[in-house]
Write a structure and sequence with these properties.
By secondary structure, the chain is mostly helical. The protein has helices at 2-27, 33-54, 58-77, 85-110.
Length: 114
């Protein structure tokens, strides 16, 4: 689980960076209020997942896993371009988090029930 938590922390750091860039761009009219709101929601959702996964709650893991997988495919659909570099780094962290969640879920299934 520590692998997943570390990846989520880095994903939050990237999301905060993206939020700061969007707020800065909004001052110059390059970003809309909806983009800033979505970036804020992204940070809030990731923070919520991090808080819930610190206390290993199984249903949160089942919600976070599809989000991580969709993030990987979403970043890959942007292609290998310089303007997509931050999304690709985020996709790597999402992949690491998804792998950590799958490992944790398989360990939970193999644990003996008494």
């Amino acid at each position: 689980m520590s692998l997943t938590l570390t990846a989520l922390r880095w994903m939050i750091a990237l999301a905060i960076f993206g939020l700061a860039v969007r707020i800065f761009a909004a001052f110059f009219g390059e970003a809309t209020a909806a983009q800033v709101t979505m970036a804020t929601a992204n940070v809030a959702i990731l923070w919520g997942f991090l808080a819930a996964l610190k206390r290993p709650i199984k249903w949160v893991a089942y919600l976070a896993l599809p989000l991580c997988i969709l993030d990987v495919f979403g970043a890959m659909s942007g292609g290998f371009a310089p303007e997509n570099a931050v999304n690709m780094v985020d996709a790597i962290f999402s992949f690491v988090a998804a792998c950590g969640l799958v490992i944790w879920m398989s360990e939970q299934r193999k644990a003996p029930v008494r």
